[in-house]
Write a structure and sequence with these properties.
Strand order of the largest sheet: 2-1-4-5-6-7
Number of helices: 13
Oligomer: single chain
Largest sheet: 6 strands, antiparallel
CATH class of the largest domain: Alpha Beta
Distance between the termini: 65 Å
Strand content: 25-35%
Radius of gyration: 25 Å
Number of strands: 18
CATH architecture of the largest domain: 3-Layer(aba) Sandwich
Length: 481
């Protein structure tokens, strides 16, 4: 992918997610969330940044997490999941995602980069032979990226000003003047042929054109260590951040944890967490990385759950590509007793499942950890303690969704957002909050009274629920037909 050259590596920025925007994505017709981003602290790695998202079921919390997971895969250069086409809102033919990043450079320069992507579904007909009927064409939609735009307020000379596009595949084959004119001879027909071929290939593979290996290799040949531009560096910086420093633990991963199927640990250069189970086969290099992660987990785990340590066993085997590898087996160690980790309670498994990535985000200013249903299975007092510690002395960024209202009492109000019942305005920051207000009490009052500009909770009627339960169960004397 895009190269980080030696001189550039010494001047990498701290990166934070500043804004996320969803349009026609899952249950969100439109929604925008802005993070605090710790911009009042320069550099930002001197202070953590938190975003907690609350709201009723089905109101867009998991959609935000899934959007970030999708963006991580796209900008990381991976193909989009085949099932993504189902994420496009039923009222639309396409979904739009946008993310704004806050980049703080060692020089003191603070810049903004915005990435926008339009995703559509294309139909593919596959004949399926059935035993009792004639052959039928089954229509299934496959995702593809139809437009990409990258804007920034940073110029080639290192100064900042107005936002301008450095990549825009909507209006031109590749991008605007910022990159195309610097790297490609538009009078050479071979250039157009090469770019057309690359773009067609990424369309077929459901990948990003801007962040595919073929285009990055083409640019890498034209952009040397002695002669590279700020705009090339921006592509390399955001590619590096999404691949290596954004960790997303969504509903799929949480489901595997709840089923005790394993625990996730993010590996460098991977679009999703590696879920460790007794059937997991990893390379020797990955096994060494997991050993180090377990060592770090154990340092913290003893302070959270005294007497518990995590063990890891490796059984030598051969990987699919014929190299030496390991079967990974996770163990619990309590005193002199050792037993399989999946015997532990749901709450302990949940804590351990996020601990490795939580440690990284706590210590690294450019790391963002995103966790869906952070409170699932976690004792609410411990939940509050973890968030207070991250807020007071952490360095990275932590984005989470939750149903437990304990965090509303313990972390700064500026870090909390709420979902609404309005599909066109899904995310909201409560207004008229005083310094002495208890945010938990205020939120519950707003749910009941509805004094905000938008409806943050679609009220349920208890008498209607009771009536429906009675109707569903029948009305016989013994209570059941």
């Amino acid at each position: 992918m895009y190269h980080i050259y030696k001189d550039h590596a010494r001047n990498l920025p701290y990166v934070r997610i500043k804004k996320i925007e969803l349009t026609n994505f899952k249950g969100v017709q439109h929604g925008v969330i802005e993070c605090n981003c710790a911009r009042e602290f320069i550099p930002c790695n001197t202070k953590s940044d938190i975003l907690g998202l609350y709201g009723q079921n089905g109101s867009g919390k998991s959609s935000l997490v899934e959007a970030l997971r999708t963006l991580k895969g796209i900008i990381g250069g991976y193909h989009i999941d085949q099932g993504f086409a189902k994420y496009i809102h039923v009222s639309s033919e396409a979904a739009h995602l946008a993310v704004e990043l806050d980049l703080q450079y060692p020089s003191g320069t603070v810049a903004t980069v915005r990435y926008e992507v339009k995703l559509e579904g294309r139909e593919k007909q596959d004949p399926i032979q059935k035993t009792d009927v004639s052959e039928e064409n089954i229509h299934e939609k496959y995702p593809f990226i139809s437009e990409e735009v990258i804007k920034t307020d940073l110029y080639a000379d290192g100064t900042t000003g107005r936002m301008h596009a450095i990549v825009d595949t909507k209006n031109r084959l590749f991008c605007g003047d910022s990159l195309e004119d610097q790297y490609f001879d538009k009078n050479d027909p071979r250039v157009k042929e090469e770019l057309v071929y690359i773009k067609r290939k990424t369309y077929e593979d459901s990948r990003s054109f801007v962040f595919c290996n073929a285009l990055s290799e083409t640019l890498n040949l034209k952009n040397t260590e002695e002669n590279h531009t700020k705009y090339y560096e921006i592509l390399a910086e955001i590619n590096l951040y999404f691949e290596n420093f954004l960790y997303v633990l969504g509903t799929r991963t949480s489901g595997l944890v709840q089923l005790k199927a394993g625990i996730p640990i993010y590996l460098p250069m991977n679009d999703r967490a590696l879920v460790l189970t007794e059937k997991t086969v990893v390379s020797l290099q990955t096994f060494r990385y997991v050993e180090n992660a377990v060592r770090d987990i154990n340092i913290v785990l003893d302070t959270l759950i005294p007497g518990l340590q995590l063990g890891i066993k490796g059984i030598p085997t051969i990987t699919e590509n014929g190299n030496d590898g390991m079967f990974v087996k996770m163990m619990s160690i309590r005193g002199d007793k050792e037993f399989p980790f999946d015997y532990e309670s749901d709450g302990i498994i949940k804590i351990v499942s996020i601990l490795a990535d939580f440690i990284v985000a706590y210590n690294q200013g450019s790391t963002t950890l995103v966790v869906d249903e952070f409170d699932s299975g976690v004792f609410e007092y411990l939940l509050g303690e973890l968030l207070q510690i991250f807020e007071s002395s952490g360095k990275g960024q932590f984005i989470f969704t939750s149903h437990n209202l304990r965090p509303l009492e313990v972390i700064d109000k500026k870090f909390i957002r709420f979902t609404t019942s309005d599909e066109n305005n899904r995310y909201y920051k409560l207004k008229n909050i005083g310094n002495t207000n208890n945010l938990r009490d205020l939120y519950l009052r707003e749910v009941q009274l509805g004094n905000q500009d938008v409806e943050i909770y679609k009220r349920t009627k208890t008498f209607k629920i009771a009536k429906a339960l009675k109707l569903a169960g029948g009305e016989t004397q013994d209570g059941r037909e």
